[in-house]
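Practice problem: predict the structure.
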Amino acid sequence: MTTPDATSALPAAWNPADHEQELYQGWVDAGYFTADASSDKPPFSIVIPPPNVNGSLHMGHAYEHVLMDALSRRRRMQGYEVLWLPGMDHAAIAMQTMVERKLADEGKTRDDLGRDAFIERVWQEKEAISGSIAGQMRRLGDSVDWSRERFTMDDGLSSAVHTIFKQLFDDGLIYQAERLVNWSPTLQTAVSDIEVKYEDVDGELISFRYGSMKDDEPHIVVATTRLETMLGDTAIAVHPDDDRYAKLVGTELEHPFLDRRIPVIADDYVDPEFGSGAVKITPAHDPNDFAIGQRHDLPMPTILDEQARVVDTGTRFDGMDRFAARKAVCEALREQGRIVKEVRPYQHSVGHSERTGEPIEPRLSMQWWVAVESLAKRAGDAVRDGETKIHPESMEPRWFGWVDDMHDWCISRQLWWGHRIPIWYGPDGEVVCPAPGEEPPAGYTQETDVLDTWFSSGLWPFSTMGWPDDTADLRKFYPTSVLVTGYDILFFWVARMMMFGTYVGAKDTAGLAQRDAKVPFTDLFLHGLVRDEHGRKMSKSRGNGIDPLDWVERFGADALRFTLARGANPGSDISVGEDHAQSSRNFATKLFNATRFALMNNATCAGGLPPREQLTDADRWILGRLDEVLAEVDAGFESFEFAKACEALYHFAWDEVCDWYLELAKVQIGDDALKDSTARVLGAVLDPLLRALSPVMPFVTETLWKALTGGESVVIAQWPRPSGLPSDEKSAASIEDLQKLITEVRRFRSDQGLRPGQRVAAKISGLDTAGLADKRHFLDSLARLDPAQDGFTATASIEVRLSEETVLVDLDTSGTVDVEAEKRRVAKDLAVAEKEMATTTAKLGNEQFLAKAPDAVVEKIRARQALAQEEIARLGAKLAALGGA
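Answer:
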């Protein structure tokens, strides 16, 4: 049995900063997080969504990590061989941009260094800053397997990238073509859709005239916010059914500045109700215009170079920056009298580079592409066929909307940092893709572009486990069990992983198909965004971002973790503020104090519980509630409803264990016949409670559980399960009645302004018939009552209706009761009863309601009416006795 000395294993108070880092290092040193691929245990695996190596973890990362860690820790306790694999992404554009800015501060450019020296400089920067992310993960308590930490440009992962590129190329799924892309003039590269942020800006919608300046001769008015692009116009489009332009379709109009005429074409894309009903078509600089250009086989001249300067038009605008050209073209059209109307401001959505903040330029460019049709179909079918299940299910239509209508993927980037595309060009234009390790033909030169970062991160679930080699990790842990990520990158990252995973599985590479491994993860849990306490998205511009490490320092990692897990519902955003963190810190303190109290009173986990018949109603009630809560927690975790699991644990621990059972236990401990069994029940409740809380609050529960049980570590303890014993409904009902009675007496005392510790003589009637005769000592202790003695005079009373009986408590409050306050309280209760009477009488007087409502519903309302009538009579009499009106 645990002795009072067990409390010496606990500090006097819980100060997280004094313990968390030492506890974490102890877990790592003990090897608790290191997975064993040769184990016979069932596998459970998660790969971390790799954070960018150039940054630090923000609150969104912390949220995601807490959820992954909770899942991993629970499965570890359930007897699974758990691999939570950490790593980071090379973040091609972000990292190169950061290093180029540093070079600019030194007065240099990447060209001054050359490609090889520049890449070496980036590697140096990567090594300098990547450790900070690992440090943050340790402070959060991430139970990752550090021995398997990976980086998207490790040799092994680079080999995987080359391997799958070669397979896709040989299968005709990678090709080179000139297409429209998002172009960053500052970075001088194509960028992915996720790196384009759309903002509403105030611009100018300028209308100008093509064709004759005479109204009775052929002409058309068009409008644009990007006037410089008219230098690349190759058509004017109208709707086929627009009678205003029917005679002009098929004709040509002279360009104001170029020595060419442009045709008027008809296309269903044009909205005849918007503006003039005619639009200018610049195929090389607008996505919609590009599609129209393809349909009508239009010329597609590129009139902006890599830096967004006008080129090759043969006009005086050549060499101008796009914004300067916009003004110059406007002035030139105005000089010709072609400006019809200018609208200022005209608010419209413009894509901006996430990295540089500049407006993105749609630009026709020769790039490498992945043909996605067959790959996307497999990704969609994997969810349709149930191989991968999306949580919440409501996200499935969004998934199908993307994968069923996916466009070919531009995978080339005009950068130096990243996986260089493994294509070599021969002197006569030959194009080859050697296999990994194979030397290219002599005299061939390698493609200078690198791959989109999402290409390598799309291989993450299996490249990190050694693919394309046949490794023990792949055989044991692939496909992974669950992917935890934000719904905001469902398309950009998750879809890529599903496409590559199903493609690799289908090719029977590394023996994966032998295990029917056609998906990279069997469950996909999508969480929402972390917002501030007012529901606003966190951003630098608003200044409302929260550094998770700041909260760790101030409130402790457990408080941060519990705050985030407690708000986590599948697919829903979460709002957090300091009040939430403080509440979670208070909860950790509450657990600490409760366990310390239990240890001071010889709480033990040694030996079995006494027979059920020897336990008190309070013992049987709390053990029954423990079973119910453990079942709720299991259901919550299994359905990824972390909030439900955490809420169940919080309210059980605080409201039922601390607020009620510990108070009842104090009374029982004072009874020599009950103190030993009560100490054992305390241990039987706190032990599984601490274990159930440990996935989300690992530090405080580790400290408390070890002190309580003497066990090695809660990290490797067995996950608690319900006892399987039938619930004791009679004991539960008895304790619920006792709680209600104590609560009402306490409320009455508070209404009267009685001091919390002031004892009051009381005579209680109805305890026997209410089944609470053996619990008078609980009532006296928790409600501060003394048994009535000879000469007792009742000066106040309170009636409490319980499940089977109404209990009357007469009190001698001579000189303590505020009569006026009591009158106000009774009058308030009377008003509530009268309102209930009016509501039920109205319903029972409604013939239509009575005709349609089920008999059980009608009977319930009649019972409510009868109870309201009794309350009105009782409270009216009481108010009269107090001298009320």
